[in-house]
Amino acid sequence: MLSVISYHTPEGKQAVEKILSRSQLESPGVQETVDRILADVKNKGDEALFGYTKEFDHITLTKETIRVSEAEIEAAYQKVSPELVQVIRQAAERIRAFHEKQKQNSWFDTKPNGEILGQLIRPLARVGVYVPGGKAAYPSSVLMNVMPAHVAGVEEIIMTTPAQKDGSVYPTTIVAAKEAGVTAIYKVGGAQAIAALAYGTSSVPKVDKICGPGNIFVALAKRTVYGHVNIDSVAGPSEILVLADKTARADYVAADLLSQAEHDPMASAIAITDDADLAQAIAKEVEAQTAVLERKEIIETSLKDFGAIILVDDMNEAVEIANGIAPEHMEISTAEPFSLLPKVKNAGAVFLGHFSPEPLGDYMAGPNHVLPTGGTARFFSPLSVDDFVKKSSIISFSKEALLPLSDSIIAFANAEGLTAHANAVRIRK
Hints:
Blueprint: E1 4-6, H1 10-21, H2 30-44, H3 46-57, H4 70-79, H5 82-100, E2 107-110, E3 116-123, E4 126-130, H6 139-152, E5 156-160, H7 171-180, E6 184-186, H8 190-199, E7 209-211, H9 216-225, E8 230-231, E9 239-244, H10 250-261, E10 268-273, H11 276-290, H12 296-306, E11 307-311, H13 315-325, E12 329-333, H14 337-340, E13 349-352, H15 358-363, E14 389-396, H16 399-415, H17 419-426
Parallel strand pairs: 1-11, 4-5, 4-7, 5-6, 7-8, 9-10, 9-12, 10-11, 12-13
Antiparallel strand pairs: 2-3, 3-14
């Protein structure tokens, strides 16, 4: 099921290239549908929003029922076990503590001549968080998207999520939202929800930034409204890449590969090792563990299309290949994982050692699990407090501070043919 391939063969190179070139956003006709939905909601507001919710989700909404009520929030807490509520709170606290360390303060640098330079840091006013509904609830996604915004000081955090067939929202989603600090929850999903957040309707307020994962309609809608509002990123399928040497346990590595393969048929799960015996052992473990897992069909498709065990000459070569792939999750399951860390250039999150499995990062470690995918770890970073603040430069000069620079400014402006720029400084001399 999971092939063992030498990197120094055409098949090895092709396996890596296939992973790098995969995309869930190349679907003929979907962009046209998304554009139509966005335009309709922009022009018709609630009428289009409610209409598409009826068409796609088979739910009838009104201005009175679109928002999750206080009574529904109270009911959600009654439906979720106290033990799970406590687990959600434990995760929220660990996520909060990690993101608190990311906060930056405004600063000023003053000089005796009256020159003041600085940076003003302010939170965004209103943020929209999209949370998938569909067939399952993901309270961890709620926490990871909302907590950094809350820590940053965002005043209003609006959440949209598709309701179930009976018009209700998953209780665990509501509880996680409440614990994380969400201001309001709206029962809408899909591209129409993104349109409502981007343009605003009578029921759903316009936001400054939209974050959160979703299907291809949501991803394309986010990409399309970017510029009108800000977005976090266009998320792709999940990825894991495990670097393993002879000290790694095959059952651990296999389990970690499968933890990502079960997400999506387009998810990528790769192990790279310099030990041929370990490679074969991982392949056998993957097959044995898959046989008893609930999402067996999804896993088998994922591994067939985007999974591999790649044999290399040594771990230095393994890291080099990994940097080229730039995975969302990178595990270093070796005898001395920290010795390889300085060589890692591109990865969303790095898990070091045999007892740092990827699900630890998904739920409880504290760092954000919203990570760059599809090779974008080459230039993108995990979701953080920085994503929910804006920065303004501060410039204040006295005449004494301006005069020594005036001739240089005038010369620069004249060189660019901007004589009015030059005059604005010359007039102050």
